[in-house]
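In the laboratory, one determines a bound structure by crystallizing the protein with its ligand and collecting diffraction data. In a computational setting the workflow is compressed into a single prediction: the sequence and the ligand go in, and a structural description comes out. We illustrate the idea with adenosine-5'-triphosphate.
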Amino acid sequence: MNESILEVEDLTVQFKNKSKLFGSSREEDRWKRVLNSISFNIKQGETFGIVGETGSGKTTLAKTLVGIYKPKNCKVKLYGKLIDFRKREDILLLRKNIGIVFQDPVGSLNPRVTVSDIISEGIPVQEKLTEPQRQKRVKEAAGLVELPESKLDSYPPELSGGEKQRVSLARTLIGGKKILVLDEPTSSLDVSIQAQILNLLIRLRKELSISYIFITHDLNVIKYMCNRIAVLYYGQIIEQGSTYEIFERPRHPYAADLIGANISFTSTNQFTIAHESGEPSKEGCIYKNSCSKRFSACESTPPTFDYGKGSVKCWLYDYMGNSKGEAGKEALEQ
Ligand SMILES: Nc1ncnc2c1ncn2[C@@H]1O[C@H](COP(=O)(O)OP(=O)(O)OP(=O)(O)O)[C@@H](O)[C@H]1O
Ligand code: SF4
Ligand SMILES: [Mg+2]
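The predicted complex, in structure-token form:
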């Protein structure tokens, strides 16, 4: 495929620890690291999936990519331009090109504003349009997302869930954005409506050549929608690669647990995995407290190993001549 339009390297995001328990004066205790050295890239017209348990940092990643949160450090390039998150013009450039559609259309649509005015919010302020031009643009955007024109004078509470999500999409697309971050865009919808929205997204991607970062906990949706995926575990990408490869042969023990359907759903429809201990490790491999493959090397933090069709952050895949490799090979064969 073509070149990357968005390159993310070493993205780290942390929040101030508000808990009173963290009265410690140590700098590292005052911060909660939510994303840790995230790297991936997106090509034009592809759908890149992010899958991870609740609290793994998916929405934080989405919000950081449009400058809502400032990363501690990172190298983000949009169309080859290095983004400086401290500069307003760079944030505006991100927002001009990257849009977000959230899971809950109800929360993101003002109930007292007409659909037409909500969609207009997505027109960049620099574009000074006359009223007839604005209306024309709104009708085009509504047509793109297959929202009947008759709904443009309605208010959000008068719309169905699927229609609301179409309004969110139209508002994002009207400004000509090239990358959409879709944060669980269909999980609040009925299954039949979900399928309609997913098929609409596929058609829009092909027609407009836009790219998606698709966040979901639904593995069937991931398989249906995504060319490549990244698996997030407590803020770290532990494996990424082609969707087919990861579903056929997950390398990382956590990805294998996930895909092996060792999963239960909570009341909010988020999944959790039946971990042996559950707690991520602060030292060495982050998954070592739950990992059935753990071996001596896991006491230190694994780097990310490239395996051709993807990459994996696990010592088991360091059997290419490294001193830790032979032990990993043995552990893998057990
Ligand atoms: N503004 C914030 N300040 C402090 N902590 C935050 C903030 N936003 C998120 N967090 C914390 O960061 C972690 C990741 O949250 P995030 O919302 O990104 O997870 P998620 O993967 O989107 O989860 P879900 O699947 O439930 O939507 C959580 O522990 C959350 O409490
Ligand atoms: S590095 Fe070790 S503990 Fe971590 S996932 Fe791999 S085998 Fe398991
Ligand atoms: Mg979220």
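The pocket of adenosine-5'-triphosphate (ligand 1) is lined by residues 15, 34, 52, 54-60, 270 (CB under 6 Å). Keep in mind that any predicted model is a hypothesis to be tested, not a measurement.
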